[in-house]
Amino acid sequence: MADPQETKHLSRGRWVFYGFLAVAGFLLFTEHRAHMLGILPYLFLLACPLMHMFMHRGHGIHDGHAHHHGSSEGDPK
């Protein structure tokens, strides 16, 4: 079982790491804001075909499989 002193040390180290990530993220954002915001319109344009590809997956596929497996789902009869 872990020693309470060791658990407290691990918790403190985790908070120090989170603080480092927060400071690094802030500095990266402030120094590279023009680059990140300049590429934003292109990311929106890239998102359109990606959303179309992933959100329209499977249109019409289920009807074809239902007939092969003998299922009566979707049959007009």
Could you explain the architecture of this structure?
The chain has 77 residues and is mainly α. The protein has a domain at 27-53. It is built from three helices and no strands. It has helices at 4-31, 33-55, 61-68. The longest helix has 28 residues, at 4-31. The radius of gyration is 26 Å and the shape is flat. The N and C termini lie far apart (67 Å). The mean pLDDT is 78.
Task: Describe how the helices and strands are arranged.
Layout (H helix, E strand, L loop, with lengths): L3 H28 L1 H23 L5 H8 L9
User: Radius of gyration over alpha carbons?
Assistant: 26 Å
The backbone outline, from C-alpha atoms, is flat
Structural class designation: mainly alpha
Query: What is the β-strand count?
Result: 0
Rounded mean pLDDT score? 78
Indicate the percent of residues in helices: over 70%
Question: Which short descriptors sum up this protein?
Answer:
77 residues, mainly alpha, flat
